[in-house]
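Key result, reporting period 2: structure in, sequence out.
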């Protein structure tokens, strides 16, 4: 199976020319395309379809594109690619902090959009399978995005889950603050790790018996974090 097979793409944009261009492009790649020409419809489709990836224009008349990103991030971890006529760095940073995975400036090359879609799906493991993580009382099923601690399912908002996922996928090794920031919030992050530390505090409250004395995720002072090794051998 190719990466793009059966992947559902939701396009939210008011520009009919953009719809024609992107639908034409992605039809060739065998993606399943769903279209919304306003933000309200886009939000409705995002909840009913559970798309694998969302492409959204920031400049919508009825619902601000930034608000659409925030709403989707309240319940979904699906990749989001922003389309915008502005290449201002501040706008890119704001969109990435809101939860977008990538940012493309209009007009764009068709091959660039194709490559960006493929890249975010590959990073999220679309169409693939990752062996689970287990250490002591913590278990993570990556394919189902299911986290259990002491046999109790724990809910994580998308950003917290993605941080935990990255640490677990790199268990036993140090993941630097910079690496995590760029992986979660993209290359345009300003390097301020405060938002990362806040999320880490929330994660530890959910998985650690004593958050101030962690047994799963260790802080490597001034460097980053290290999660204890996976007890499940690769390939099982």
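The corresponding designed sequence is given below.
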């Amino acid at each position: 199976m190719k990466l793009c097979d059966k992947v559902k793409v939701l396009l939210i944009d008011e520009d009919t020319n953009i719809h024609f261009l992107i639908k034409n492009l992605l039809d060739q790649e065998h993606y399943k395309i769903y279209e919304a020409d306003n933000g309200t419809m886009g939000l409705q489709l995002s909840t009913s379809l559970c798309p694998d990836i969302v492409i959204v224009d920031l400049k919508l008349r009825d619902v601000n594109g930034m608000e659409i990103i925030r709403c989707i991030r309240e319940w979904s971890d699906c990749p989001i690619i922003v389309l915008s006529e502005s290449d201002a760095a501040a706008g890119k940073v704001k969109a990435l902090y809101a939860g977008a995975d990538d940012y493309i400036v209009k007009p764009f090359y068709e091959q660039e959009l194709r490559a960006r879609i493929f890249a975010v799906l590959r990073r999220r493991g679309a169409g693939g399978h990752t062996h689970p993580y287990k250490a002591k009382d913590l278990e993570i099923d990556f394919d189902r995005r299911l986290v259990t601690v002491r046999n109790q399912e724990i809910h994580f908002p998308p950003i917290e889950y993605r941080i935990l996922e990255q640490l677990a996928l790199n268990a036993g090794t140090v993941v630097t603050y910079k690496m995590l920031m760029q992986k979660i919030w993209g290359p345009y992050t300003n390097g301020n790790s405060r938002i990362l530390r806040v999320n880490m505090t929330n994660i530890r409250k959910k998985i650690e018996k004593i958050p101030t004395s962690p047994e799963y995720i260790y802080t490597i002072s001034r460097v980053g974090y290290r999660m204890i090794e996976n007890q499940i051998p690769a390939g099982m």
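Helices lie at 16-28, 39-49, 65-73, 89-98, 110-124, 158-169, 177-185, 194-207. Residues 110-124 form the longest helix (15 residues). This case is discussed further under Risks and Mitigation.
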